Amino acid sequence: MRLTVDGQAFDFDADPEMPLLWALRDLMGKTGPKFGCGIAACGACTVHVDGQPVRSCSLPVGEVTGAVTTIEGIGTEGRLHPVQQAWLEEQVAQCGYCQAGQIMSAVALLDEVAEPTDADIDDAMGGNLCRCGTYPKIRAAIRRAVVLKTAGI
């Protein structure tokens, strides 16, 4: 099999039914996406396939037909993505386990909606669970990311 992940081509042998998450973590060394539930309910494993957020724990690697982007691949030229920068500035993470999936969902939202409303944020982030309850900080970080993205940061 061959996948393009974070702009790099990977050739590997795997059962086509293996979840994309395990191919990313175990075969390609991409440890940003986390295993949370295994049933696509928590969002910790969220990555992008052709720019769309997907739950990698339940997507068979054999069904992936586009380029995959993980949290490791969203920054450019050694710079954080505006969403990552906003996460730091708003001090969102507590335990941090869900944050890669949260950030990937937020990036997808801002790629689709330049200035999201609270309803847009709720809709896009609704499937991402945070045990620590940092939802108000997540919303604040998304709002800050809009400002940073607009400013070209």
TrEMBL record:
The UniProt entry, under InterPro entries, shows:
2Fe-2S-bd, 2Fe-2S-bd_dom_sf, 2Fe-2S_ferredoxin-like_sf, 2Fe-2S_ferredoxin-type, 2Fe2S_fd_BS, Beta-grasp_dom_sf, Diverse_Oxidoreductases
Q: What superkingdom heads the lineage?
A: Bacteria
Q: Which GO terms describe its molecular function?
A: 2 iron, 2 sulfur cluster binding; isoquinoline 1-oxidoreductase activity; metal ion binding
Q: Which UniProt keywords apply?
A: 2Fe-2S, Iron, Iron-sulfur, Metal-binding, Oxidoreductase
Keyword RNA-binding listed: no
According to the UniProt entry, what is the EC number of this protein? 1.3.99.16
Q: Which residues form the 2Fe-2S ferredoxin-type domain?
A: 1-74
Pfam families linked:
Fer2, Fer2_2
Note the PROSITE patterns from the entry: 2FE2S_FER_1 (PS00197), 2FE2S_FER_2 (PS51085)
Keyword Oxidoreductase (UniProt): yes
| Protein name in UniProt | Isoquinoline 1-oxidoreductase subunit alpha
Report the source organism.
Mesorhizobium prunaredense
- Which classification does the entry list for the species? Bacteria, Pseudomonadati, Pseudomonadota, Alphaproteobacteria, Hyphomicrobiales
